[in-house]
Amino acid sequence: MPQLAFNTPMGPLAIAEEDGRIVSVDWGWPARSEETPLLCRARDQLDLYFTGDSAGFDLPLDPPGTAFQRRVWQDMVRIPFGTVRTYGDLAAALGTSPRAIGLACGRNPLPILIPCHRVIAAGGHIGGYSGLEGVSTKRYLLNLEGIYL
To answer: Catalytic positions, please?
Structure first.
């Protein structure tokens, strides 16, 4: 599976593709990195996101997960740049519990591209984040989008 690693303001990210679709975004450097047209396109779009020159992504995504997780992630992709939804909002839309939404967020294999950082706890509390340095990484991504909690 081809992976491409590159530096970001948050440190190195590695993007992987399989069968012409992005399947993972990981923190750190993989053992091997290679360029493919799709991985270069993903890197370029992420670079634009981190510099504030783009508010969205146009990439084929295929995150591995259960049917339920994929439904949650599809709803998260629809959260616009610079806005947030609560775990409860997503739970109500999907007919499940906020805890189930939180678990799906924590298993998101495509952080940033599937913006689980835009999902917060009730009352404007930031909630948790499973990537890199946890809540401080989530706060950084939200601040990048003009959201200050």
So the answer is: 116
